[in-house]
Amino acid sequence: MFGMSKRDLAALVLGLSALVAVGAAVAQEEAPAEPATQPAAQPEGKDLEALWNDLLHYIQVARPDLALSYGKAILDNPDAAGQLFILASKTPGARAELGRAARNEQLKPVIGKIVRMIEKGYTAERSDPARIAQAIEMLGGSSREFQIACERLLKSGEYAMPQLITKLRSPDAPESLKDRIVTFLPSMKLEAVRPLAEALQSDDPLLLRRLATVLGQIGYPHAAPMLMDVLQSPQLKAPAKAAPGAGRSMEAVRTAVQAALVACAGKEAINKTVTHLYYELAEQYYYRAESLQSDPRAEQGNVWFWQKDLGLTYKSVPREIFCDVYAMRYARVSLDRDANLGAAVSLWLAAYLRKEADLPAGAKDPTQADDRPPAKFFGLASGPKYLLEVLARGLKDKDVPVAIGAIGALARTGGAKSLATAASGGTQPLVDAMSFPDGRVRFFAAVTLAASSPTEQFVGWQMVIPTLNDALRMSGSKRGILVADSSDLGNKVKGLMRAGGWDVVEAAEPGPAIAAAMDVGGADVIVLVDKANAAGAVQAFRREAMTAKATVIAIGRQKPALAKLAETDKSLVILAGDAGDAEISAALSAAAKSGPQTGLTEEEAGRWAIKAAQVVRALGLEQNKVLAADSALLPLAGLLGDKRAEVRLAAAAALAVMSKPPAQQAIVQLALSGDADEKVRVAAFHSATESVRRFGNLLTEAQSTAVLEAVSAGGSPELRDAAAQLLGALNLPSEKIKSLILQTAG
Fold it and tell me: CA–CA separation, 134 vs 470, rounded Å?
C-alpha cells in the first residue's frame, strides 16, 4: 500500500470518506427485489476476494437475499479484518454499491459491519508504527526515497506525528533528517496542526522554533492560542540558558513564534490576550467548526497530549464527542489563564452536558478519569448565575440536552429570586424557556419556576400557569374557544369542532372569550367566525398569557389588517367565509398537532402531566399568592378521564387542594365511576375526603346521595371503607344516614 501513487491515494481517501457516510446511513428506501429465479447463493469454499466480488454483484442486480448470504460469509472469513480494506480500495464503484445496499433494511446491519471493518482496516494501515518508522527513516535518503516517504507519511497522517516529533527531539537523530522532517510537515496541513500545537509545551528552544516555523507555513488559525502561550511564557522572557548558537537563542524562537502567530491569525492576534484566544477556540469547537472536525474516515478522533518525558501522545474518543472534549479542554485552559472569565465556566458546563448527551450508548470518554463526577455535579456546584448562562446558550442553539441539564440543576439549587433574575445580556432564560419549541424544556422551566414558590411577581410570571396547563392538557382532551354568533356558519363550526374531539367553550365576542379562557385555564385553538375586527381580536389574544400561544383560526370576510397580521403571526390561520367542512376540519386538525406536545412521546407527555399536577398541588397547599392553583382546575379535571391510573390520581390529588366546588365534584365523580379501576376509585375517595376536610361539603345533592349509596353497595372492604370515610367527612344529616343503619340486622 505504501507504493501507491498520489492519484490512487486521493481516490482511496475519497472512497473511504464516502464509506463512512454509508456506515451512518439511515434506511429510507428499500432496493427492489426481483423474483428469486436464480439459484441459491453458495458462498462456501470461496476466498475473500470472490466473496467480495459476489457481494457487489448481487447488490448490483438487486438481490438482497443473495447479497446477504455473501455479506455474512465475508464477516465470518478470518482474513476479512486484514484484507477487506485493500479489496475496497482496489474496487472502483464499491462505495456507491455499498451505499445503495445500506438503504435496504435487510442488508443494513451486515453492510454496516462490513463498512466498519473497512474503516478499521484503514486506521490500522495508517497507524502501523513499524511502517511509519520505516517511512521516517526514508525521509533522510535520496530524492526518490524522500518522495516515497512523504506519500506514505501523508497516508498515515496524524498517526505519524508522535514518531516525527520524537525524531525532532532526539539528540541522536541527524540534523539533516530533522531538516527533512521540517520540510515535509507543512504538506500534512490540517492533520498536523493539533499535535504540533500540543507539542509547543516543550521546553526545547530549537524544537519550539521548528514547530512554530511549520505552524506558520500551514497557517491554520486554531494554533494561535498555543503560539501566544509560548510567546507570553516566562521561558521566552528570561535570558537564554541553552547552549550558544543562533538556532537555540530565545530571540530566534520569539521571532519564529511571533511570525507564526501572525501567519495563523493575522496581525490583530498580537493584541489579543491568550485567554481570549483560548476562549474563541473553545467556542469554535463547541459549535463544531468544519475545520476542527476529526477525520471523517474514522469512527474515533484523536485527542492529543504532551508529556514531558514521553513527548506527544493521544487518546482516541468516539467521533461524536470529539469537539465536546476539545471545547471543554480549551474552556478550562482559558479559565486557568484568567480565573475571572465566568463565560468559560458556563461554556465548559454546556460542553460537558452536551458531551454526555452525544456519547454513544456503552461508550466511554478515555480522556476523563473514571471518578470524575458527572456534569450535573458541577452544575449544582456552580450555582444559578452560570446555569442561567448555560440555559441561555442552550435556548439560543435550540440544544435540548443542554437546556434540560441546566434547568435540572437550577431546579435543585435556585430560589425564586435567583431563578427569575436576568443572565448576562439581560435575558431571563428560565422565563424564555417557557416559549421553547420542545415541550420538555418548556414544561421543565414552568415546573421549576412554580416549585420555587415565588412570593412576589416577576417578569413573565403570567406564563407559568398557562404553561403548566399546556402540560396538563396534553394527556386530556383539546380545548377550543368558539367566538361566534348563533349563525349557520357558527353552528357548523361548532359541530365540526365537537366532531373533531374538541371541548368547546362558546363566547359571542372576543372580550368574553378571553375571560372564558381565563376560567378554563387557556385554550389550544380560538376560532373567530365572521367578526368585524378580527385583527384587533387576535392582538388582544396575544396580549394575554392564557391565549398568547393558541392557534387562532379566523373564518369570514378577508380584511387587509388581518392578512398583514398573518405575515408575522405564524399561529394565525385565515379561512374564507365559504370554506368547506374539509378545509375547516383540516385547520382544526393542524391546530391540534401544533400544540404543546412538540417533541414528546405519549409516555413523556404523561410524565409531564403528573409533574405539572404535583407542582400545582404544592402551590395549592401553600396557597401561593403569585401563582393561583385554581387556574389549573379545568385542565386537571380533564385528566381524570385519562387512561393511565397514575395520571388520574395525580390530577385528583391536585384538585383536592382547590376550594372551588367543581374541583371537589370532579374528584367524587371519578370515585363513583364504575369504569375506573378499584384502586383508582379508592384513591379518589381519599382525595375527595381531603377536599371535604379542607373546604367542607361542596358536592351536589345528587353526589351526596350517590356517596351514601356507594357505602351501602357491595364491593371490596377497601372501597367501602374509603367511601365510608368520605361519607363521614360530609357530615350528612341523620335522615340521610338512617337508611345505612336500617340495612343492618339486630
Answer: 67
**Alpha carbon separation from 463 to 131, 261, 618 (Å, rounded):** 65, 51, 18
Say if residue 245 is exposed, middle or buried (CB neighbours under 10 Å; 0-12, 13-18, 19+): exposed
Residues 397-441: pLDDT tens digits?
Answer: 999 999 999 999 998 887 666 787 666 666 689 999 998 888 899
**What is the bridge-based pairing of β-strands 551-555 and 572-575?**
parallel
Task: Tell me the average pLDDT across 389-394.
Answer: 94
Q: Same CATH topology for 469-593 and 623-742?
A: no
Strand partners, 574: 554
Q: What are the start-end ranges of the H helices in 266-383?
A: 274-286, 322-337, 342-358, 375-382
Round to whole Å and give the CA distance between 683 and 650: 10
The arithmetic mean of pLDDT across residues 40-64, rounded, is: 79
Residue 652's H or E segment, with its range, is: helix 645-655
Q: Answer whether 141's CB lies under 8 Å from 61's CB.
A: no
* 318 backbone dihedrals φ, ψ, rounded to 5°: -55, 135
Say how far residue 407 (Cα) sits from the centre of its chain.
Answer: 13
Angstrom distance (rounded) from CA 616 to CA 449: 11
Asked whether the predicted pLDDT for residue 563 surpasses 70, the reply is: yes
433 in Cβ contact with 445 (< 8 Å): yes
Measured CA to CA, the distance from residue 213 to residue 210 in angstroms comes to 5
What are 222's three cell numbers?
486554531
Q: Considering only CA atoms, which of 397, 391, 392, 371 is closest in space to residue 379?
A: 391
CATH code reported for the domain at 469-593: 3.40.50.2300
DSSP string, 723-739: HHHHHHHHT--HHHHHH
Output the 3-class SS for 55-81. HHHHHHCCCHHHHHHHHHHHHHCCCHH
At 402, the amino acid letter reads V
List of long-range contacts for 301-304, beta carbons under 8 Å, 24+ apart: 302/158, 302/159, 302/194, 303/329, 303/367, 304/161, 304/194, 304/195, 304/198
Is residue 449 a contact partner of residue 441, using CB atoms and an 8 Å limit?
no
- Per-residue pLDDT tens over the stretch 651-675: 999 999 999 999 999 999 999 988 8
623-742 is classed CATH 3.30.450.40: no
Determine phi and psi for 3, rounding to 5 degrees.
Answer: -95, 10
Number of alpha carbons in the 13 Å side-chain half-sphere of residue 456: 3
Whole-number Å distance between alpha carbons of 461 and 546: 12
Bridge partners, 311 (sequence order): 307
Ranges of each domain in the chain: 6-127, 273-358, 373-459, 469-593, 623-742
Q: Give the type of residue at 586.
A: A
The DSSP secondary-structure symbol of 247 reads: G
Question: Does residue 27 have a pLDDT over 70?
Answer: no
Half-sphere exposure of 559 (CA within 13 A, CB side): 14
Grid cell locating 314: 493521544
Which residues make Cβ contacts (< 8 Å) with residue 44, sequence separation at least 6?
A: 73
What contacts 24+ positions apart, CB below 8 Å, involve 333-342? 333/225, 333/278, 333/282, 334/275, 334/276, 334/278, 334/279, 334/282, 337/273, 337/274, 337/275, 337/278, 338/273, 338/275, 341/275, 341/279, 342/385, 342/386, 342/389, 342/424
What burial class does residue 293 get, using C-beta atoms within 10 Å of its C-beta: 0-12 exposed, 13-18 middle, 19+ buried? middle
> What per-residue confidence (pLDDT) applies to 57?
86
**Grid cell at residue 294:** 476529526
CA dist., res. 208 & res. 240, Å (int): 14
Distance CA 391, CA 430 (A): 7
Strand order in the sheet with 478-483: 502-507, 478-483, 525-529, 551-555, 572-575
